[in-house]
């Protein structure tokens, strides 16, 4: 059986500078322009990881009439 490998692309990330801490965050998901590590509160530096492409799912948009009927 062959394993199918996903297409990888370079993704900008922030990673923790603490060698014991393995935390990293996609740059687009970071809380600020220079975030602190959410686990150890240490500094983070920019880097790049080769990751599978992120699939963005769209939320279903309710029609106005459907939303209004719950209010009455």
TrEMBL record:
Keyword Metal-binding applies: yes
Keyword terms, alphabetized: Metal-binding, Zinc
Chain ranges of the PARP-type domain: 25-72
Superkingdom as given in the UniProt entry: Bacteria
KW Metal-binding (keyword) present: yes
Protein name: PARP-type domain-containing protein
Organism: Cohnella kolymensis
Lineage of producing organism: Bacteria, Bacillati, Bacillota, Bacilli, Bacillales
């Amino acid at each position: 059986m062959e394993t199918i490998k996903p297409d990888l692309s370079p993704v900008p990330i922030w990673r923790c500078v603490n060698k014991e801490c393995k935390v990293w965050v996609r740059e687009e998901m970071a809380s600020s322009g220079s975030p602190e590590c959410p686990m150890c509160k240490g500094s983070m530096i920019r880097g790049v990881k080769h990751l599978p492409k992120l699939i963005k799912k769209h939320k279903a948009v309710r029609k106005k009439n459907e939303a209004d009927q719950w209010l009455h």
